[in-house]
From TrEMBL:
Taxonomy of the source species: Bacteria, Bacillati, Actinomycetota, Actinomycetes, Streptosporangiales
Cofactor(s) the protein needs: FAD
Keyword tags: 2Fe-2S, Iron, Iron-sulfur, Metal-binding
Entry-linked InterPro entries: Cbr1-like_FAD-bd_dom, FAD-bd_FR_type, FNR_nucleotide-bd, MRET, OxRdtase_FAD/NAD-bd, Riboflavin_synthase-like_b-brl
Stored PROSITE patterns: FAD_FR (PS51384)
Residue span, FAD-binding FR-type domain: 1-105
UniProt-recorded name of the protein: Ferredoxin reductase
Source species: Nonomuraea rosea
């Protein structure tokens, strides 16, 4: 097994996503590459030697030494406030990865894909969407994206652009844009039946978001007849940020 080592990552690009999230692009010399859906560890070290580390999903497919993360602010966190409020182009941090081999999508796969995102759980799923586009894959994707309101939507402009073979359903839990007919609320069986694939199509299902969301969505997919081995989940919860 390849041993992961810490590498210096230099910020080369910063882009705002929402009022509390931004996307950071890094050059990481010697980066070994990664698969869509994998994550990495970030380590910050203070002058007194104290260090803190957190894991973040990568938001884009492999592109040489370039790595992209989208980070959501955790107000009382140790790492995310620095990444959101302090980091500037030219600054350096340490990263280690890639990590994970189960929650990944490979362009060689021919099965239709259902992506189910809760809030910032869209990040690794967006890497899959971008990987599909980059690879010129014709595998059909469907994305069911649950979020509080339209202002909390990540990658808003990119997801508005036409992307043949990608169908998107938005679910809102607190407030919805004008014209949205679906009632506000959490994800339901009907949402996944309408926005997803029939179970007999044997799609690969990827679910990412807060623990409660992931558990609920996975249970709904099982209730719709999807095979357990085709449902892959990635969850996050309070980790200190």
């Amino acid at each position: 097994m390849r041993r992961l080592t810490w590498r210096v990552a230099e910020v080369v690009q910063i882009e705002g996503e929402t009022a509390t999230a931004r996307t950071l692009g890094f050059q990481v010399p010697g980066w070994p590459g990664h698969l869509a859906g994998q994550h990495l560890d970030v380590r910050l070290t203070a002058e007194d030697g104290y260090s803190a580390q957190r894991s973040y999903s990568m938001a884009a497919p492999a592109d040489g030494d370039y790595v992209e993360l989208t980070v959501e602010l955790v107000p009382d966190g140790e790492v995310s406030p620095y990444l959101i409020d302090e980091l500037r182009v030219g600054d350096q941090i340490e990263v280690r990865g890639p990590v994970g081999g189960w929650f990944v999508w490979r362009p060689a796969s021919k099965a239709p894909v259902l992506l189910v995102a809760g809030g910032s759980g869209i990040v690794p799923l967006m890497a899959m969407i971008r990987e599909r586009r980059q690879a010129g894959s014709r595998v059909p994707f469907r994305l069911v994206y649950s979020l509080r309101d339209q202002d909390s939507r990540y990658y808003a402009e990119e997801l508005r652009r036409p992307d043949p073979g990608l169908d998107i359903s938005y679910l809102y839990t607190r407030s919805a844009p004008p014209g949205v007919r679906r009632p506000l609320g959490r994800i339901t069986l009907g949402d996944l039946a309408e926005g997803g694939w029939p179970a007999d199509f044997e799609p690969d299902c990827y679910v990412c978001g807060p623990t409660g969301f992931v558990e609920a969505a996975a249970d709904l997919l099982l209730a719709l007849g999807h095979a357990p081995e085709r449902i892959r989940t990635e969850r996050f919860g309070p980790t200190g940020g």
